[in-house]
Batch of 2 targets.
Target 1
Amino acid sequence: MNKKIKIVNKKKFAVACLIFLIMIILLSKLLSLIINSASGHALMDNVALAADKNGSITLEENEFYKKYTIDCKKSIEKLNYDEKNDLIEVSVMKDAIDNVNIKSSSKVQGKDVTYDKNENRIILKFNKQFKENNYIYIDNADKKKIIVLLSKKEKPYNHVAVLDPGHGGVDKGTNLKNIYEKDLTNKIVNYAEKELIFKGCKIIKTRYEDKWVDLKEIGNITNKANAEAFISVHINSNKESKYKGVASYYYFNDKGEQKDERMALAKTMQKEILKSDNWYDRGIIKDRLAVLRYSNVPAVLLECGFLSNEEDRDKLSKEEVLKNFGNNICNGLLNYLNSDKNKGIDYYNKSKTDMSRDKTATADDK
Ligand SMILES: [Zn+2]
């Protein structure tokens, strides 16, 4: 009898031990989960974005790109992101985004985007369709917006153009107090570049940093780029503060090579840059400027207002105005590239051309 009881007790003891062990394991798992969450490890992994009319992320799409705009509640000073082979990870503070969903009333889902969330941060993961030609940046006119461009094609462009932010490095261009032409031209070109990329135009810039580039070298960059057009952006100034407004400079040689194209480009650009902020119209002006002469492809030089004029200077000090220039340059260039260039474009009232030829206000030698 005694023996039998002993055996039964042993079995019970073993079962009890096993249950105890399992409980210990479960408890330790639970404990580690609590510790991890407190120390900020991920609690939610790869949650797909849903459609939500109050979502903070908007999706705009065309044949070239998916453009995601992340609306943040406060200005983003530094972009926190990591670009990998197959995705772009953007990390923002949890309290910076109201609603981590796609702003939409329909039932579409942001299948390319998922997110992880931890105690402090949201990590948005944008899946790339193609390795190259994806972009992420802060909108400089509205620092609360982060833009992610996801390429939808191996080569997401139909056109190629060269943009030249006038001056750079030691060559500051014209300046007034602490406003430098080279900074304004760089900003305008960057706004134009981003819009053009989204709308299917590959952009080559003559400088990607604040450095001086020789005029001849600018011509070489353009002629090597296999581009369809060249646009140089400048800001004007004059000893007399009364001069104001915008003008588009073009040039064709004595043989009249590319005459129609070059005039059409200038007309189209001038028409577009006048579309915002009430700029005074100085018209299109033929001038033997070096950058226009060196370019083998249709070229235009835009003088975007006068720093020496108070009214123009006030406008140029607004980021929104510089962005409008960028958008208008984008639209003008695309209008030109998509038009029948050889026929010229009668967008623009020709009488303006002569009216604005006051020698005192021509562009400095570019
Ligand atoms: Zn200049």
Target 2
Amino acid sequence: MVHCPDVEWALLRQITVIYDKITMSIQKIYQYPDPVLRKETERVATFDESLARLVEDMAETMYDAPGVGLAAPQIGQSIKLIVVDTHGDSEGERRFMPLVNPEIVAHEGTQFDEEGCLSVPDLTASVKRHKRITVAFQDLQGQTHELSTEDRFAVVLQHEIDHLNGILFIDHLSPLKRSLYKKKVKKWMVET
Ligand SMILES: [Zn+2]
């Protein structure tokens, strides 16, 4: 799934965390139209034990769902933090990568790929994204890195970074598709 030049694999190996189920706890995933998904997020300024614990809980929640990425607003935390699965980097072992304060600093080309979201149940749709991106971010120690990637992994990163700006993948769909989904959600809410 992950496709990066050789030099970036070294970075991925350095930053990825091996999934260790014992220490983690599953969090509630907020779903559309919960307002927390639209809230402005704050930059992470403290790189401590509680940040590391939050990242582990996010990974546990992501794998339990299951998903390939999760942004902090999806568990009700309005901060600039995402985790993404990087299992393509290893043999059988589950590995994920936390990106703190991630920002797309360069992009190139376009691609269309099918997306879904743990916060937008029962919908997948083709979304237009950048083909190749460079993301600047900090690791759990606060050190700054840049990662360039393309294809599916670039899609996952763009999707998760969107969450930090209150944007959901349905915002990229045509107004017609979006309103059909909104109607469906309204119907569910009346029924439950
Ligand atoms: Zn999502």
